Amino acid sequence: MNLPAVRGTLTPNRPLADLTWLRVGGPADWLFQPADTDDLTAFLKALDPAISVFPMGVGSNLIVRDGGLRAVVIRLGRGFNGISVAGDTVTAGAAALDAHVARRAAEAGVDLAFLRTIPGSIGGAVRMNAGCYGAYVADVCTGVTAVTRAGEVVRLAPADLRFAYRQSALPDGWVVVEASFRGPAGDPAALEAKMAEQIARRDASQPVKDRSAGSTFRNPAGHSSTGRADDTHELKAWALIDRAGLRGAMRGGAQMSPKHPNFLINTGSATAADLEALGEEVRKRVFQDSGLLLEWEIMRVGEPAPAVDGR
Fold first, then answer.
1. Is 205 a catalytic residue?
2. What does the radius of gyration of the chain's CA atoms come to, in whole angstroms?
3. What is the pLDDT of residues 227-277, one digit of tens each?
4. What are the b/e assignments for 53-73, b being 16+ CB within 10 Å?
């Protein structure tokens, strides 16, 4: 495969397991780490439109299947992690970690504290309308800069993204490079204390020391078009899994966390197939128990491992 020349790094047959929090998955045909936005746009403009492109953040909400990805995986790095604050508006590169954005905003007296406990980077947070503690990216996002699959730089308003619960309308192959957020004013010391309390709550209830990808399944409840949950009527996925007797359930090296049963963890020897199969078993058993079909929150991409001996 002949690919365009780049100023960044272009690596063939790059294993992806070490780039995901679950530490599983086969190789990508190519991994492209652009030097800057100009490098990214030039590459996408020249790239054969028939070649698939998959933007990847820090792999915090992702299962890459064992056969890998037949695509060019685009992973943004240092040229895309800047954070700046002007008044009540925070602008962050897509590779900036959510936690870093929350802390930088707090130092400037802007309350984006909900981002502090969300694993991952800003690009993924925008694509998935990340949220916790009753706040969502949809509530604070004022605009996004993205590069289309054709290599055009576009500025998107929140309405263009059509945020919904744990999703947006960002087209496949488009790469978020920057996003802006407007948060309420807050005292920096009070915001730091608020984030510390959130971290303590998270650490008390979630398996933060295990290899996981955050919440495995979405909460099966009604949500508004902006992505805000109706907490009054919301059913919790973890409670449905627990009621079905699946807390601590295992398959190979995969396990539903004994601490929080909506966290799928790699105990050390899991394959992507183990993780996905356990997740599907959980969906089946919960449906049998409650009549509710859980939807994956973790993104699953790529191909299964090749069959061995014809199996």
1. no
2. 20
3. 444 444 468 999 999 999 999 999 999 999 999 999 999 999 999 999 999
4. bbbbbbbbbbbbbbbbbebbb
Catalytic, 224? Answer no
Q: Which fold has domain 9-78?
A: 3.30.43
Element (DSSP H or E) covering residue 224: none
DSSP 113: G
CA distance 196 to 201: 9
* Token pair listed for 252: 């190979």
Rounded distance between C-alpha atoms, residue 62 and residue 301, angstroms: 8
Q: Cα 284 to chain center, whole Å? A: 24
Q: Which of 103, 215, 276, 283 is catalytic?
A: 215
Residue 309 confidence class, pLDDT cut points 50, 70, 90:
low
d(CA 56, CA 78): 14
pTM over the 0.85 mark: yes
297 catalytic residue (yes or no): yes
Check 166, 218, 251, 283 and give the catalytic one: 166
Q: Over 50: is that where the pLDDT of 116 sits?
A: yes
Q: Which of 14, 103, 276, 297 is catalytic?
A: 297
The separation between the first and the last C-alpha atoms of the chain, rounded to the nearest angstrom, is 29
Amino acid at 38: D
> Would you list the domain boundaries of the chain?
9-78, 81-189, 209-301
Secondary-structure class of domain 81-189 per CATH: alpha beta
The CATH code of the domain at 209-301 is 3.90.78.10
Tokens of 66: 């064992």
